[in-house]
């Protein structure tokens, strides 16, 4: 007898409280060890359309639903008694007549009509055309649409299809998503007659064979991470495609860019067994997260992981520099600031602030590794909008040239210098350290880092693969990739199905950004055709009269989420900067919950609410999120606004501040609360505004 677990089981497991989950997992382990143990209290589900549904008693109120035959034992669902039985009576496990894939199908007769929930607003007196009326019946069946659901599929429109797809098997709903966003899904080849329906590719993504207790434990411990194992067909196309040069996959938060990057690295290693693959991103914490997910993805192929190295860009830069050139003596940010301060004092006739000098040094002089007055005079200053006449540039160069001289005298090197030297060395080398590089969170790659990556593989087929979202750029000024030899034009694709964030949260967060975002080279990402795979309650945006009132409101909201079954470690609270952390702590304490302030390692803890500044939110996700202290002068940060040297630079400040708020809001899966103490940030007006 094969023991399997369905994705519907892991999905339902996450909605239970922590103690309920522990009890359910124990019962699942016991069932795997001995499915026919009479002590498990298995009972047939009376009145179920499928006679093979049974219930297993977890505790007084929790029931686990299994589908049991002589050949198969399938964990299907877990919930409180009445909800569990209701789920079983509304489902059947069957083989699709067209595809041959095993499916858990909701019985059509139990759903009299598609009811639009109250949080989906429908415009009155507007006749919307059916979305799928023109799709031939045979084609819809080829996508896995159950026969009994064909009439409903043909009638659904733009406002009602989100509710409909909740009733369809996963492969069918995914295909309809693609069609709704203007794509045409690939049709999976049907399996031959007599083949095990669980062996169909669509079924393999929904039902997993559990060979032992350890594997079952992993499946239940990381239910949210099951997408690291399975790919949507649109994602798989990008993973497996051959590209003649650098390629980039884009998409808004939650569309699975990181998953594509992980699978791309594994694919390159699997099909190039003698090659070395670099999987990298811009920070150490995100690299650590990538490594954890990669090991989980490759747990059946551990030797494959030996060909993949996972590092942050700065870490791999230091490692390669040490091996090829010598141990680098890095100049710290503190040292650079001290050198800039001293040099500025020695040059008369200016009033440049340290903040301006630091940014000009980092983003122009050091980034482009300018060595002479002529180079600085003529540089186009991409990403810097402040206008600098030649006499002003001349004064600035006197300061920067002194800093360069001091660094050389001390034998110090910046990361920009390190990557620039590496780029030269790699260009001249006949044996590169890696054959392929896959880069996650590519929108925050710096100029010198991209120069290094270009030297590593820009001229090689499949040499460079980038995953990122321009709407989440918070650390880097915009610059031309093409100017550095990385041209992704014609090899850039956008993912438009959001798996992490509800339709309501995604739609509202997108109001912080325009309908499209573009890079310096003219590559454009459309955002208005992105679709989420599930509904949820609308985000709550509240402007309170005082910080005291905000504390009470947030505390009450957190308490309600706990009552709804959300565990403390499934809650994140974000503020603009460390200066507002006390406000977050006060609100969490008002809810009588424990919290953990996240550091650069961004490690969450069981039974603790996670609290952090917005810039650490990258890569995190929670069932419920609070974004607090969105006050006027806090976001956008007044200190940044006052520091700009020219009004033209305000646009970039406002863009990155918007991106920060967007990143924080899109960490939420199901529930989002955004608060401020009056007067509120102008961004909250944008969040509320209909496009």
CATH superfamily caption of the largest domain: P-loop containing nucleotide triphosphate hydrolases
Assign the CATH architecture of the largest domain. Answer: 3-Layer(aba) Sandwich
Major sheet description = 6 strands, mixed
Helicity level: 25-40%
Mean pLDDT: 87
Strand order of the biggest β-sheet: 2-3-4-5-1-8
CATH class value of the largest domain: Alpha Beta
> Would you give the CATH topology of the largest domain?
Rossmann fold
Number of helices, counting only DSSP H or I runs of 4 residues or more: 25
Core attributes:
alpha/beta, 38% helix, YaeB-like fold, 6-stranded mixed beta sheet, Rossmann fold, 25 helices
Structure write-up:
With 691 residues, the chain is of the alpha/beta class. The protein folds into 4 domains: 123 residues, RelE-like (YaeB-like fold, 2-Layer Sandwich), CATH 3.30.2310.20; 212 residues, P-loop containing nucleotide triphosphate hydrolases (Rossmann fold); 80 residues; 152 residues, Rossmann fold. Helix content is 38%, strand content 17%. It is built from 25 helices and 24 strands. The strands form 6 sheets. It has a 6-stranded mixed beta sheet with strand order 2-3-4-5-1-8. Strands 11-10-12-13-9-14 form a 6-stranded parallel beta sheet, sandwiched between helices. Strand 2 and strand 3 form a beta hairpin. It is globular, with a radius of gyration of 27 Å.
